[in-house]
Write a structure and sequence with these properties.
- The protein is an alpha+beta fold.
- Among the domains are: 35-130, Neuraminidase (6 Propeller); 404-660, Alpha/Beta hydrolase fold, catalytic domain (Rossmann fold, 3-Layer(aba) Sandwich), CATH 3.40.50.1820.
- The protein contains twelve helices and 38 strands.
- The strands form nine sheets. It has an eight-stranded mixed sheet, with helices on both faces. The protein has a four-stranded antiparallel sheet with strand order 1-2-3-4, with no helix packed on it. Strands 5-6-7-8 form a four-stranded antiparallel sheet, with no helix packed on it.
- The longest helix has 20 residues, at 2-21.
- It is globular, with a radius of gyration of 26 Å.
- The two termini are 50 Å apart.
- Residues 1-19 form the signal peptide.
- This is Acyl-peptide hydrolase.
- Keywords: Acetylation, Hydrolase, Protease, Serine protease, Signal.
Length: 661
């Protein structure tokens, strides 16, 4: 009797333990749980890190951003703000006494964003500026006596109270932009605010836009970026300039590269300015990648430090001794941290691996603050000392501890022309050796890459019982400039070869069920979905998000006027018209498509307008191919409303289940 009772007790305890340890699969409503971390800043004394966390608010159907602070060792962490307006561009004042940020909180009838100050010793935050124009960014001077402001001229027409809106008048070449809408001609200029007197001084004038300011260590000058060609809308020729921080000062041009120079940053000893330079000096450089460079403060002795690396670099940060610069590198599914020694030119990997680093801030010699994600973990903050990571934030960890995530492995496939292509494969953790239906989910860009990082969309798809492949087709970055530019003016050719090559490889290896193939993507991923289903009929289900196929009809209705002209040509020129028609084959050969396809798009998308999805929906509907069109009201290229994000994921799963299971 006692043995029986003991045995039953053990079974009961085991059942309780199993229930406690049971993990569930991800589902679309998890968009209401995923937080995101951003903008980490190290305090001047180095003991604290300021950062923001965006938290989904299901009641308001949007994310709410608040400020947090964590100690350098990660032991103390607390929330600073709880406001409904949210805070942006938060940072410490140079003396460490205050935290400043941008907020659109309405005070004294001032409705546009202003700088607010929060005393670290306690008390409520107070509005610090009353700028009339659109305050876009700001930067403290190193001594804390001044703040550089980037302000777009005030919209006087918007101030007029009228029940009827004034007509939209376009006079720029780049006359429309996603989110922004129809663009106006109001320039953006640099100002300097005296912290004590509150006097605001305009530093630059004219019909040019200025941005990305950086102070000289002695606080006397500001370097900035501007395109001062005759018609900036017709090229990508950004250059770096410098000006004394006072009214009427003469502006000096530092760079003359015909491509793009950007992100200037003064060394702490004042001897150099580091910056990013495009590889190409062509008029249109969408397929380009940045090179890290330095120059003297007068623009002389420019040196390219990472040209031979042939990989995109970004987020350069000076070490405190001004002898080296750390930066991020995108390289074949990774984003890692490297450093270059100025004296020797030697580039050293600081830390890499099958993960993705996205942020970088200097602390002191040998110490850095970074943000890192891997396939099982969304981004969190880490300190980095002598190559050793220490995690100091734990956003999302409690929620994800109860989630059974898919496994992620890398693979390489060969396209029919012999090109080696890299990819990632997600499979449910309990899939075993079972052949699953495959969803080929394609990244946008095209100049971006899928990395060893957390991917909610693909994880949700895998949780639905699918193998999900991410393929870095030609056009992606991370494999060198030639790999990215291979598709220039020839869309839907090499990329489709690479996607089909990866599919063939996964089927041949017995990793997926070749009779149950799905395909999908957003933006250029949606465009490539259209190209692929018009090329190969074996895909049983497709989802084309924010895509286009009749490319000739996109001319003049999206934001890419410069790209169309430079890469494809002018539709009224016969040879160019032929090129437009060649890359429009998914629409002009829609009768070859047999794949049931769901089309989705934001109603106000100016990046890839809804017409692209509507045309393909109309074509397939006419041809009696199963299809559906979903348009998200008042949404741009990116879907921002949380309920729409969840709805999109649910529709993904429903569509694939209908045709693949």
């Amino acid at each position: 009797m006692k043995k029986s009772i003991l045995f039953c007790s053990l079974i009961a305890c085991l059942g309780v333990a199993q229930a406690q340890n049971a993990k569930r699969k991800l589902h679309p409503n998890d968009v209401y749980r995923l937080q995101s971390i951003a903008n980490p800043q190290v305090s001047p004394e180095g003991k604290w890190v300021l950062y923001s966390v965006s938290t989904p608010d299901s009641a308001k159907n949007k994310k709410q951003s608040d400020l947090f602070m964590v100690s350098w060792d990660g032991k103390d962490n607390f929330q600073l703000t709880y406001s409904e307006e949210g805070e942006g561009a938060a940072t410490f004042s140079p003396d460490g006494k205050y935290i400043s940020y941008l907020s659109s909180k309405k005070v004294d009838s001032v409705e546009n964003s202003q700088i607010w100050l929060m005393d670290r010793r306690g008390g409520e935050a107070k509005q610090f500026t009353k700028v009339k124009g659109d305050l876009q960014s700001y930067l403290w001077s190193p001594d804390g006596s001044k703040i550089a402001l980037v302000i777009k001229d005030e919209d006087l027409a918007a101030k007029k109270k009228s029940p009827t809106k004034a007509p939209i008048v376009a006079n720029r070449y780049n006359y429309k932009q996603d989110i922004q809408g129809y663009t106006d001609s109001r320039p953006t200029h640099l100002y300097v605010l005296d912290v004590v007197s509150q006097k605001l001084t305009q530093i630059t004038t004219g019909n040019y836009d200025e941005g990305q300011p950086t102070w000289s260590p002695d606080c006397s000058k500001i370097a900035f970026v501007s395109n001062r060609t005759a018609d900036p809308d017709r090229n990508d020729n950004d250059d770096i300039y410098v000006v004394e921080a006072k009214a009427g000062a003469q502006i000096q041009q530092l760079t003359t590269w015909k491509g793009r120079d950007s992100r200037p940053s003064w060394s702490k000893d004042g001897k150099y300015i580091a910056y990013l330079r495009s590889t190409s000096d062509e008029t249109f450089i969408n397929y380009d990648q940045n090179i890290l460079a330095i120059m003297n403060p007068d623009g002389a002795n420019s040196k390219l430090l990472t040209k031979e690396l042939d990989r995109p670099v970004g987020n350069p940060k000076w070490d405190n001794d001004s002898k080296s610069i750390a930066f991020l590198v995108d390289d074949d599914r990774q984003s890692y941290i490297s450093s270059v020694d100025l004296a020797t030119g030697k580039i050293t990997k600081v830390i890499d691996g099958e993960r993705s680093f996205s942020g970088l801030e200097s602390h002191s010699a040998g110490k850095w603050l970074t943000s890192m994600s891997d396939p099982q973990h969304p981004a969190n903050l880490f300190t980095l000392t002598n190559g050793v990571l220490n995690q100091i934030t734990h956003v999302n960890e409690k929620w994800l501890s109860g989630i059974d995530l898919a496994t992620v492995t890398g693979f390489k496939s060969k396209s029919k022309d012999g090109t080696i292509v890299s990819g990632l494969l997600l499979k449910p953790s309990d899939a075993g050796i079972k052949k699953l239906p495959l969803i080929l989910f394609i990244h946008g860009g095209p100049v971006s890459q899928d990395e060893f990082s957390f991917d909610l969309t693909r994880q949700v798809l895998a949780a639905g019982g699918y193998a999900v492949a991410a393929v870095n087709y030609r056009g992606s970055n991370g494999r060198g400039i030639a790999f990215s530019k291979a598709i220039y003016g020839d869309w839907g050719n090499l990329e489709v070869q690479d996607l089909l090559g990866a599919t063939d490889y996964l089927v041949k290896q017995g990793l997926v069920d070749g009779d149950k193939l799905g395909i999908g993507g957003w933006s250029y991923g949606g465009i490539l979905t259209d190209y692929t289903i018009a090329t190969d009929t074996r895909f049983k289900a497709g989802i084309s998000g924010a895509g286009s196929a009749m490319q000739l009809s996109m001319y003049g209705i999206d934001q890419y006027m410069l790209q169309w002209n430079e890469e494809i040509g002018y539709p009224w020129v016969k040879k160019d018209l032929e090129r437009y028609m060649k890359i429009s084959y998914p629409f002009t050969h829609a009768d070859k498509i047999k794949t049931p396809t769901l089309f989705m798009v934001g109603q106000n998308d100016f990046n890839v307008p809804s017409e692209g999805s509507e045309q393909m929906y109309a074509a397939l509907k006419t041809l009696n191919i199963p299809t559906e069109l979903v348009i998200y009201p008042n949404q741009f290229h990116g879907i921002g409303i949380l309920s729409y994000q969840a709805d999109r994921l649910k529709r993904y799963l429903d569509w694939y289940a209908k045709y693949l299971k």
